[in-house]
Amino acid sequence: MRNIDIDSLEIFKAVVDCGGVTRAAVRLNRVQSNITTRVKNLEERLQVSLFHRESGKLVLTAEGQKLLTYAERLLRLSAEAEAALMSRLPSGALRIGTLESTAAARLPPLLSSYHERYPEVRIELVTGDTTSMIERVRNFDVQAAFVSEPFRADDLETCLAFSEELALIAPKNVVSITEARKLAQRTVIAFATGCSYRRILENWLSASRIMPGRVLELASYHAITACVAAGSGIGIMPRSVLKAVNAGGQVQALPLSPEFSQTRTHLVWRVGYSSLALEALQEELRRFDSD
Amino acid sequence: MRNIDIDSLEIFKAVVDCGGVTRAAVRLNRVQSNITTRVKNLEERLQVSLFHRESGKLVLTAEGQKLLTYAERLLRLSAEAEAALMSRLPSGALRIGTLESTAAARLPPLLSSYHERYPEVRIELVTGDTTSMIERVRNFDVQAAFVSEPFRADDLETCLAFSEELALIAPKNVVSITEARKLAQRTVIAFATGCSYRRILENWLSASRIMPGRVLELASYHAITACVAAGSGIGIMPRSVLKAVNAGGQVQALPLSPEFSQTRTHLVWRVGYSSLALEALQEELRRFDSD
DNA sequence: GTCTATGTTTCTCAATTTGAGAACTTCCCA
DNA sequence: TGGGAAGTTCTCAAATTGAGAAACATAGAC
User: Fold this and answer.
1) CB atoms within 10 A of CB A139
2) Which residue in B18, B22, B267 sits closest to B133, CA to CA?
3) Prior bond to B255 cis, omega within 30?
4) Which of A5, A75, A288, B34 is the most buried (most CB within 10 A)?
5) Which of B84, B51, B198 is nearest to B130 (CA)?
6) Is the dihedral of CA B263, B264, B265, B271 positive or negative?
């Protein structure tokens, strides 16, 4: 026993509270001798006397008083720790990865409702693309992540979170897909390489036999809309994001054929890795789904 | 072990910090097997898994993360408790009894200097008369008390704190002791019966063969001066208090013969009952004495 | 005074917990 | 395919803990 042990403190406190070894023993379901001994050991351990022993009475010393306040704090804290860990209610930190798009368009209402239900959970968001998120899940850097099809994650568990409809984003003055194709030959504006949407955009381009002149990599949907609005090129994004970033007035959305436009966002996590907070998040997703 | 024990938490934290059982063992001067076992026991105890065990690596689970923050707080707190108790520096609460007069005239500079030197000590003052203070010391209600001669306290340790010169307090218009004696036949204004100064005053009255008409018992020196100033009777108080309550303009002090006027204030405490904070107070008294 | 009720402390012994060391297992990497 | 690094399991000895009996102390009651 290198550190003070909490049991000793509990015994000590019981003696103080009950004003005696015997009653403390009753309260703690221990034997008197045990109480006496533990208190003496504690005194020896700390090299102070905690009680004045006079005429069969135990009265706290100044040192004892000092220890008592610590003992109470430690007991409270340890009880709290134990309760937090053993309780079947979510608490602690929930660190999840997410795509920019999901964070922008989908998470606000979800997380707000989640927070209301489980205020004990502190949520941390990490944004990034699908590929890097899957890596982070594997590395235990995040407990789960929202990622978008297509992705490979045979070793992870997944559940469907949201269905998205992707649209081409083009400057206002572009009126047809044909015209958009032409623009794409000049510049494509997209997230970094790991982004699923960008991969879809590239698939569409290649199906249309277009080789983009250059790719402008940006890090936020606001930046992308701004560049597209400025006529720099075309981009791709879910309609839900387009709505969320309020970009309808600046750019226009051109429909893609369903084979390209339909994509789904999943929540993924390590097999067997589940925490109460995470389970609650899945539950919350189902709740939103059924609405 | 009914409560979580801090050693287990220390081991747990070391494993997290060092990222492995082996290094944790080195850090704590324990054997690896011990670390492994304690962590497993802890997990069993709390009925959660704290680490993901995969390919010889230990990675914190969400529950583990939750425990970690508690573990850190508990370790800090217990270390602080131990340090506070074992340190040779005064800290905690120092509860001392004092006479009104001492509190008014002597303690302010003493305690202010004490506080500056030992900011960790929280001082609590209880005021009352000599008799009740001695009782409180005996009952461990206060750790020590300032009391005034004469008092009986064979079972207590004492040290001289202050020397006081008592003076009769009379209304401004009373010019001689004789006149004061006359006034005393009407009314004597004093603290409650336990007060040493009152006893001295009574001794003086009885030596002067005066039987006071009535005794007006008040609880503060300000009240006493006010009554005396109003001509209600005479009182007694140390000159130091007279100065401290700034009563010079309202009443006048008449000298008593030395056998009555000289009295001393002592600090008393239970034999063998000494705390660092109390020792420091005695030290502080000596320091003031030699100034 | 002596007795009794109520406490605390001491002592001994058995049960439990802890720690060391060696053997065993895994996985990674050259 | 054979080390090396890391974690786990096993066994045994040592330390700690808890129960119970007995000794010891004190304050009232008679």
Assistant:
1) 10
2) B267
3) no
4) A5
5) B198
6) negative
The backbone torsions φ and ψ at residue A173, rounded to the nearest 5 degrees and listed phi first, read: -80, -5
Give the DSSP H/E element, type plus range, for residue A13: helix A6-18
Per-residue burial over A220-247, b if 16 or more Cβ lie within 10 Å, else e, is ebeebbbbbbebbbbbbbbbbbbebbeb
Mutate to test the interface with A, among B34, B51, B66 (most CBs of A within 10 A): B66
What are the tokens at B12?
């747990």
What domains are defined for chain A?
Answer: 6-86 (1.10.10.10), 92-163+264-290 (3.40.190.10), 164-261 (3.40.190.10)
Which residues in chain A have their CB less than 8 angstroms from residue B81's CB? 4, 67, 70-71, 74
Burial class (CB in 10 A: 0-12, 13-18, 19+), B21: buried
Tell me how close the Cα of B73 comes to any Cα of chain A, in angstroms: 8
Q: Which two tokens stand for residue A199?
A: 């991969």
Instruction: Give the whole-angstrom CA distance, residue A183 versus residue A204.
Output: 14
In the structure, how far is the CA atom of residue B285 from the C1' atom of nucleotide D7, in angstroms?
62
Which chain A residues have any C-beta within 8 angstroms of a chain B C-beta?
Answer: 1-7, 10, 46-48, 52, 59-63, 65-67, 70-71, 73-75, 77-82, 84-86, 91-94, 140, 143, 270, 273, 275, 277-278
Low-confidence ranges of chain A (pLDDT < 70): 55-56, 272
